[in-house]
Amino acid sequence: MRLAQRVEELPAYLFAEISRNIAEKRAQGVDVISFAIGDPDLPTPDHIIDALTKSARDPANHRYPESEGLLELREAMAGWYKRRFGVELDPQHEILPLIGSKEGIGHIALCFIERGDVALVPDPGYPVYAVGTALAGGEPYYVPLTEENEFLPDLDAVPEQIARRAKVLWLNYPNNPTGAVADRDFFERAVAFARQYDIAILHDGPYSEVAFDGYRPTSFLQADGARDAGIEFHSLSKTYNMTGWRIGMAAGNATVIDALMRVKSNLDSGIPQAIQRMAIAAFEGSQDCIDEHNRIYQGRRDRLVGALTKLGLRIRPPLASLYLWVRVPEDTTSVQFATRLLDEVGVVVTPGIGYGPSGEGYVRLSLTIPDERLEEGVRRMESLAGGWAQ
Ligand SMILES: *Cc1c(COP(=O)(O)O)cnc(C)c1O
């Protein structure tokens, strides 16, 4: 048989490789501590699980769901947008539930990208933006996010002929992997750029509720003109510790939502209804869990930033997201640094190069690790101290 070239050309999924390395070390008997993967360690709150157990026994939830999701769910999502961001959305035309936001982020390329089209993607960035583009036959163009520019893309630096070929601009704030945040003013500049070149903006915002020091992240849809320019992806994964249940949404421009709905209705049959009931409970129930989780993450952030700074590494404490983006010592690559930590002390961090060429020089540490494992990880890194300065 002959596989399609698009499959042959797929890059190895970064985390698959990391998992393999970890498995190898564990097989050798090493007690590996992983700061690599952004997957909340805390359980899904009880009141959300209760909605699942209740609806699991209802035969109405045993049949094919509708692709566009329960109207009640779309109304709950619209209600949340209104309460949280003051953004009014029409649940019939401006919201589409997704089987986790990654699913929609991958499929949306089919709505815009034809052979030879360009997608502007952040570098470093979540790998799915570029991979979805490539699977649809297009070309990702990497827009660097640099520390000098607060990890925001310099849209004026995108070459004119690239901007003309581009169909979409991907943005992601609070940002994975850099932890950077964006304000309304930045989003409005992006809208102006998108209007100039007739580009759709696709904003990925799964970390809008993971924030510290009282900071409240902005929704792209709060920007003037956002609804004409594009959509925002959102997820319950990081907000309510629901990565395993697979549910998220797209919200905003009705034409884009309709296009994504048409693609999806031909490929999947929606989200299991009992899980849709969990999402309704999450959006409409008490939001106290969000502050509780953030307090825990903030404590871990402070502990790690303090320890790593003492060890001579340079970090800016993030205001949001689940990640520390740490500069590695001069004369070391991100892979060398990560390899050394794994080989010498059994600690896993993600090399920045895995998120794109501009990720070189950094490693990413996730805050989704239980406190006692974090402490042990810190102790082990301290045992290497002095070692990595030279
Ligand atoms: C975790 C993550 C997602 C995916 O979330 P799901 O809804 O679980 O698919 C999307 N984008 C970014 C940047 C993420 O870090």
Tell me which ligands are bound.
pyridoxal-5'-phosphate
Q: Label the overall shape.
A: globular
Main sheet characteristics: 7 strands, mixed
Assembly annotation? single chain
Radius of gyration in whole Å, from Cα? 21 Å
* Spatial sequence of strands, sheet with the most strands: 2-8-7-6-5-3-4
- The CATH H-level superfamily of the largest domain is Type I PLP-dependent aspartate aminotransferase-like (Major domain)
Low-confidence stretches: none
Structural class: alpha/beta
Which H/E pattern describes the elements?
Answer: HHEHHEHHEHEHEHEHEEHHHEEHEEEH
Overall CATH architecture of the largest domain: 3-Layer(aba) Sandwich
Question: Any idea how many domains?
Answer: 2
Give the count of helical stretches. Answer: 15
Termini separation? 52 Å
Number of strands: 13
Question: Would you tell me which CATH topology of the largest domain applies?
Answer: Aspartate Aminotransferase, domain 2
For the record, what CATH class of the largest domain applies? Alpha Beta
What is the overall pLDDT average? 95
% residues in beta strands: 5-15%
> How helical, in percent, are the residues?
40-55%
Describe it.
The chain is built from 15 helices and 13 strands. With 390 residues, it is an alpha/beta fold. α3 packs antiparallel against α12, α4 packs parallel to α12 and α5 packs parallel to α7. It is 41% helix and 15% strand. It folds into two domains: 134 residues, Aspartate Aminotransferase, domain 1 (Alpha-Beta Complex), CATH 3.90.1150; 239 residues, Aspartate Aminotransferase, domain 2 (3-Layer(aba) Sandwich), CATH 3.40.640.10. It binds pyridoxal-5'-phosphate.
